[in-house]
Amino acid sequence: MYPNGRFVPAVKYSPNNIASWIGGIRSAPLLFDYCIENLDEGQLNTTYRPGGWSIIQVVHHVADSHMNAYIRLKLALTEEKPTISPYDENLWAELSDVKLVPVNVSITLLHALHSRWATLLENLKEEDWTRTYYHPGNKEYMPIWQMTNQYSWHGAHHAEQIISLRKRMGW
Ligand code: NI
After folding, report:
1. What's the gap between Cα 91 and its chain centre?
2. Measured in angstroms, how far is the CA atom of residue 157 from the centroid of ligand 1?
3. CATH number of residue 94's parent domain
4. Residue 109, domain extent
5. Which of 4, 65, 112, 125 could bridge across to 160 with cysteines, CB 3.0–4.6 Å?
């Protein structure tokens, strides 16, 4: 896996794939604990690439994105092909809760959220994995198995941005 690269979606789902994706969602908060360990305010405000988000914005973004994902999952489980609401992640990353709230608040949020999320996924019935939601921006129906694949990758992808910045900077 090269989580810093482009997302290459799985073409199908299998029990092994599902176990590995759920494992990724279960463990992502621990990965973010590790990402920000011992960083000071200046380091946390460093962008992972020129013009990109700061570490603080990346972590709050993951919380924003995964809260949306969790809601989408619950909608897909309880409604027939619900249309979900896209959001502008760049504008969300500029709001005051991202600017003013310490990063560890979103790490704590991720621990709580991913605990509920992974437990929900672990207890899905076989037929639930092919339930879908409709994304009006992409004009696509997204099955639950595919979103699980995507968000398992998404957490690792952003953690890798921080880890590789730390390596480059010798932090
Ligand atoms: Ni993202």
Report:
1. 17
2. 8
3. 1.20.120.450
4. 15-169
5. 4
What is the identity of the amino acid at 107? I
Render pLDDT for 133-156 as a digit per residue (tens, 0 to 9).
Answer: 999 999 999 999 999 999 999 999
Type of residue numbered 57: Q
Q: 104 C-alpha vs ligand 1 centroid, how far in Å?
A: 18
**61 CA to middle of ligand 1, Å?**
7
Q: Is the pLDDT of residue 3 over 50?
A: no
C-alpha span between 154 and 28 (Å, rounded): 10
Residue 101 lies in a domain: yes
> Would residue 94 count as lying in a domain?
yes
Compute the average pLDDT of residues 104-112: 98
Would residue 2 count as lying in a domain?
no
CA of 65 to the centre of ligand 1 (A): 7
Does 147 fall in a domain?
Answer: yes
Task: Tell me which amino acid residue 58 is.
Answer: V
